[in-house]
Design brief:
The chain is of the alpha/beta class. It is 48% helix and 12% strand. The chain is built from 20 helices and 15 strands. It has a five-stranded parallel sheet, with helices on both faces. Strands 1-2-4-3 form a four-stranded antiparallel sheet. A three-stranded antiparallel sheet has the order 8-9-10. It binds one RNA strand through helix 2, strand 10, helix 12, helix 17 and helix 18.
Amino acid sequence: MKLSLKDSISQALQDVVNALLAEVDATKIPAVVLTRPKQKEHGDYAVNIAMPLAGLLKQNPRQVAETILAKVQFPDAVDSADIAGPGFINIKLKAGGETDILKDIMQMAESYGRLDNNNGEAVNLEFVSANPTGPMHVGHGRGAVVGDALANLMNARGYKVHKEYYINDAGSQIGVLANSVWLRMQELQGIKITFPEGAYPGDYIIEIAKEILASQDFASFEALDDVSRLQQLGELAVNANMAMIRSDLTDIGIEFDQYFSEKTLHESNKVTQLIEKLEADDLIYTGTLPPPKGKEVVDYNPVKQRLFRTTDFGDDVDRPLQKQDGTATYFAADIAYHADKFERGFKHMIDIWGADHGGYITRVQAAMKALTGLEKQPEVLLVQMVNLTRDGVPFKMSKRAGTFVTLSEVVEEVGKDAVRFNFMTRRIESQFDFDLEAAKAKDAENPVYYVQYAHARIHAVLRKAEAENIRLTDIKDIDTSLLTSDEASKLIKMLIAYPDMLDTAANRREPYRIATYIMQLAAAFHSFYHKNRVIMDDEALMQARLLLLRATAQVIKNALTLLGVSAPESM
RNA sequence: GCGCCUGUAGCUCAGCUGGAUAGAGCAACGGACUUCUAAUCCGUAGGCCGCAGGUUCGAAUCCUGCCAGGCGCGCCA
């Protein structure tokens, strides 16, 4: 691929810098970084390279900048370069100097912004992993949308992302689930029951109970002993919940490459083998844990147990792998799971967790270090909590009372595109106040319609052109240098910035940048649209503007596609 | 008590890993549709960037200490 104008300019500057610092250790030579100045008077590009160089060369920055400018060979599109402020080099381009990009965009179409890299790094991305004990709530939805967009984004930038969902279908919670279903089944048979404190109260449990009774005889369960009855009902209930979860995920356009069952880890003895291996490696010893800090512990009684030496690998305290009854802890299964990912060839794993699991990161990474030697694996992204409101009034949600709003209810009310886009408009580190009415509103309060409207508007113009029998000139014959208005220049700069933005977003695991970018791009377009009439008598200018519109629509669509949001051609 | 996240305009948030005069949207005020979609645009006003120190040519950004909010801290997942 040919070098972009930006890259040619920074290369030209880098050559001079390298020559000036020929004596200096190559690894210490600072890299030239072109930025887009905020002030128009500061030119099209600005470089601060003279400042870090000043220290190395023991000259003042403005003097260094002069030396650089005296030697540099800029590409033709550069009009002028001057020194400003403490030592910035401001570069001004010739009018229409960057407009060739429009032709490149049209040629690359949906691959504009993407890196074709056939041997990209394989990454295992685990997200959602909502427990199969009930429906997904909005918090899961945020993690799901962010994870899916991150997968799309990283795939677009050359990684090979494997999307995985970990099903926690083992452990005591499944027993609680099974018992809850059994109680409801009895209730449906007219048997009087008392619903205990810890059981799951939600109505979906009744639905599951009805489903089971519809296909199987109540008496056949009654005949079973407690253990096998709960075992069977647990499996049925997990399957029912997972079917519901998968259907909810489909409704917001999310598909996983793999669903991984925790239960299979136990059944294949991977967990016990893991413990044996750690024992053999002398990483487990008998000890007593100190009492937990920070809350009243009434019933704390210290017990001797076998502990994994995670503190040797960066953890705060050593961790037990087995409960007193001998069964494995969740932690034991989870490290067996991550070790399994490693064995499947993934040296790079990303997990997306809710903020309430933040305290868990250190111990998993410590365990992985002990097992594989890998540092900081898995890479964990914490998604902060979602506060659901309607017209600013928070919902009173209680799992115990069974009054929580599910993700599918929200998606049904608000719509997939609005849910997905809104969840992408903030950094994951900030808590999200999600207002149902605001997300539903088809007005300026709602960014998703703002950007979709821009796309639809462009297509309205293109339809109008078609209706007036305007033939689109061959792209190579269009004179893009006619696009000199301020609004056109701003729009073109936004289009040029797209690949760099994706690169930053992928490297920093920040897919929200795509949403922020699309909003800015849409704003640049709307502004252009108001001041620059497209369909007009000046044939050459009209063709150039039509090209600009087509390129803009293409980039909006490319970006929305990464977010899993549709780009309608009319609204 | 300890750990992680957050604190920027009245509200919701950006600020491109240290750069030039801190930016958007909403709300407020004033304008723009006989012309390609007004779900739009243009303008005005609004800021001790939580507080206090420090690092340097230069700090919303990095370091330290406070303050406030969220999440978490037994073999629950």
